[in-house]
Structure formats: C-alpha cells, structure tokens
Amino acid sequence: MQEIAIALHGGAGTLINGEMTPEKEKEYKNVLSLALKKGYKVLEKKGNATDAVQTAVIVMENSDLFNAGKGSVFTADGTHEMEAAIMDGKTRQSGAVALVTGVKNPILLARAVMDKSQHVFLAGEGAINFAEELKLDFAKPEYFYNELRYQQWQKIKDSEKFQLDHSAIKNSKMGTVGCVALDSSGNLAAATSTGGMTNKKVGRLGDSGIAGAGNYANNKTCAVSCTGSGEYFIRGVVAYDVSCLIEMKGLSLEEATQEVIQKRILEIGGDGGLVAIDTQANISMQFNTEGMYRACKTSKGVEHIAIYQD
C-alpha cells in the first residue's frame, strides 16, 4: 500500500527561546497544526499532492504569524511584494509569481499560472492582471498591515539595510511558508510562499518563486520547499541540489539535505532550512539556524510539530 505523508514549514531563523511566550508558541503551533491537518486530509481522501500542499500553504498565508500573504513584510517603499511557487513532481509542471501586491493568496495565483497559462513565471503588473482576469480574491493594504512587521521596517527604513524576517530582530521571527507532500498515487508536490525581506528594494526577487532554488518537486527523487537567505539559496540552487544529489550520487533524502543545508549553503554564507519528502514517505526537516517552525505527518503514524532544535 502506498504511504501518504506531508511536511511543512513556517520559516527558519534565529529564535530566542526565552523570548517566546507560551501563549505565542501555542499560537504558532496551532496554525502549523491546522495547516498540517487540512493538507493531510486532502491526502487521506485520495486527493493529489499538489492540492494538499496548496491547501496547507493557504492556511499559513491567511495567518499574520508568518511572512507570507497576510503577514508579509514591508519593502523599502512601505509596500508588500509577495512571491510564491508550486510544482507537480509527476509532470514537473510549475507555476510561480513574484512582485505581487494585493493578491490575498499568492499560492493560488502560482497554481493558476501552472494550470491556466502557457508560462511558468509571471511577475509584477502582468501577474496582478492575470489574477484580476481569473477573479482571484484581492485585499486592501490594511489587510496586510502588521504592527510588528511595521516596527521592523521602521528600524531600518531610509537605509541600505535589509533583513531576513528571522534575523537581527531576534524576538520578532516570522518566515516564509512551504509544504511538500506525497499522495496515494505516489506523486510528489511542493509549494512555497513568502513576503520576502524587510526593507528589500522594490523589485527584489528571492528564491521562493524560483523552481530549483526555493521550490522543487520530481517524482524520481523528492519534493523540497526552502526558507532562509534567498540570495544564497538562489546561488546554491538549493532545492534542485538536494534532488540532484539523490539522483546523481545515490544519496538518501537525509544525506542529501544534510549535505546541502549543513555544508554547502553555509560554505557560501547562507543560512536557513527546508522540508523535503521522497516517494518512500521519508521526510527531512533540515535547518542550520536555532530553529524552524515545522510539522509533519505520515500514514505510518508519525506526527511531529516543533519550533526549536529537538
């Protein structure tokens, strides 16, 4: 019998355990649990992996606890520019969007690019126009406003500095969200969504929307969703690197993710983490920071929700 499994993340970063209140930790875990539950339910009903990862990511996009959708950070101009990607491991079809403003759930727009266009990646005005054509839900700027994100931005606005949402201000960690899944037909999928970096230059692109960098799925190997210092994940082609090590060197999923996150990305100065899954329902939730919001569940009875190093 084919196993089913799902894993998700809400960002990796520098987390100060003593500054995380029990109440706040519970809030984070509740959202992770809800995303896990809804995504896994799709798989239980013999739905496909692509629908499952999309479902889980929407839950996290709709929470202002994470830097995606509703909780997206501010650009240097005080706006929100979001990006997202989704990929089907069976067909290797992929859809991605970037420089998106006002779209309530960027992951739905990425899915539409994959399913309803001849393209892989749409950005800026073209992506927004496509969302309008499809009558996707839009939200006003105040929907995306978050006081904590605003204060983060205020501290570094009018400077050349920018920061990952999980660095510098260590007690205000929120992050990119993502999910990988294996369905009952043995197919894999990955989805990733983010608001990017606080005070980033308008027009900056991270790894989340780039197939092979922050998001990748291939039934021959694995599905991967990344979170961390996007510029480095792009340079390291991190998500594909994991897949390539499995396909070309015969590494296991755990060996490949360890090699990439604990060695290769660190060697070029990057930090962060990822969640990954293979067709045998093996899961890896690898990170080189103090913690990563993460959760997983399998039909083998495994269920795990965590923030800090175990």
Strand order of the largest sheet: 4-3-2-6-5-1-11-12
CATH fold field value: Glutamine Phosphoribosylpyrophosphate, subunit 1, domain 1
From the spread of the alpha carbons, the general shape counts as globular
Number of domains: 1
Mean pLDDT: 89
Protein name: Isoaspartyl peptidase/L-asparaginase
Pfam family, one: Asparaginase_2
In short:
Pfam families: Asparaginase_2. This is Isoaspartyl peptidase/L-asparaginase. The chain has 310 residues and is an alpha+beta fold.
Task: Give the topology.
Elements: E1 5-13, H1 22-44, H2 49-61, E2 82-88, E3 94-100, H3 106-116, E4 121-123, H4 124-133, H5 141-144, H6 147-156, E5 177-182, E6 188-194, E7 215-217, E8 222-228, H7 230-236, H8 238-249, H9 253-267, E9 272-278, E10 283-287, E11 291-298, E12 303-308
Parallel strand pairs: 3-4
Antiparallel strand pairs: 1-5, 1-11, 2-3, 2-6, 5-6, 7-8, 8-9, 9-10, 11-12
Helix pairs in contact: 1-2, 2-3, 8-9
Please name the defining characteristics of this protein.
single chain; alpha+beta; Glutamine Phosphoribosylpyrophosphate, subunit 1, domain 1; four-stranded antiparallel sheet; Peptidase_T2; Isoaspartyl peptidase/L-asparaginase
